[in-house]
Amino acid sequence: MFARSARRIVAVLGLLALCAPQQSHEVIAAPTQCNARQQVTFLTAGDAASQSGVVAVACATSKVRGLMPHAPINVRMLDTNALRNQITQITQAQVAAEPLVGISTTLQLLGALGPKQDLAAIDRSQYNVNSAADYDIRTKTLYVRGSKAAFTPLDRAIIAHEYTRALQDQYFGLAGLLSNGADPISHNSDALLAREAVVEGDAFTTMLNFTLTFSRQDQVLFNQQLQRSSPAASDFAHDRIGFPASQGTNFVKYIMAAAAKGKKGTAATVAGLTAVNHALANPPSTTRAVLNPAIYLQHSEGNTTQAVPEVPIGQNWQEIESDVLGAFGINDLLTQHNTPAALTRAANDATNAWQGDRWVVYQHGASLMLIWRVHFSSTSGAQAFQRALLAFTGTRFRTTLSALAPMDWRTTGFAISIRSHGADVALAIGSSGDLLATCTRSVNLLGFQ
To answer: Residue 325: its pLDDT value, please?
Structure first.
């Protein structure tokens, strides 16, 4: 749902302690002899020790990842303040490019974003201006904090993470992988989130494997630095920001292990890295496949394309945004409010049965209308979605709602109509109780009576 470059180091540092490998494993790849001129080109003068440190990280990262740069990676060494300013500029450009108006409206109507929450501010907060490094896709430049002080273990790990992104960019083109298109009506942010997961999962897995080259003392220091990192907030907006690193790392580990199965030593490592290269060249198209990597490996994602649920609700209503919530989005939304175990199972069943969805937001003055259509692989999956959604809505408004469609309900500032037909569910949500009749007419116009 959010067009981003998936570099939210602050939001995911706490995950590293959970993901970090506990035992060594063999890594290979690039030639054992590392020529600094092949790895990086320094665009600015810097102290020799810092430059040497960057080269050492670049060489080790190439070896761990199995990729040598086609051309030396441009590196610009900056002092602390200059790097902060550079990261701020990158942040502002990334957030400005995100289509946040319709998305914010949708999340508020669904109850995933509070009326006082600022989605742009949440996005900006996930960039760490105190980071040791940042790779900029636009300028193809790796910015690194230059200092006479030696890089800490965490600094080196972050440089390895960002250097991996530079390698990915040369081999697979990050601008294309991390783009959601220019048309706000045809966005598919679920597919974007799935691609981000492969990119970030690869970068984090490489970084964690890189830390295995540390001395025992540096590994201890690295873990101590991670433990001092502030944990990320846990709500819908922050969970989606953390998804590429957390679930992407799980995805990459799974496909690497599957490719290496039955192999040993160098052959196993090469097979695992080849699988990651294949996933970057042919990424999953849904978060459902990221959550269930076997679906990706079996090529069983299927056709998840859903048409925009356009309905003639009136000439004064203007369509402002359309997108896909996806399997992860549905699951995370429906398990936000201390969900009981039975409803968590229903949300999981709906996630596993998800086949595709698309929502559209209309606006008429101060009034807003969300129309959403979801397709599942079975009637039971559609029913599980309805139970979880209506329980979530009931908890949200402190009431009890019917477990299944058809259902029409309204309260102050909210109206909802939901209908189902077999494995398909349609619903409309209005920003006012007075819009209930319009909600009902909208789902009827979609062919759901």
So the answer is: 93
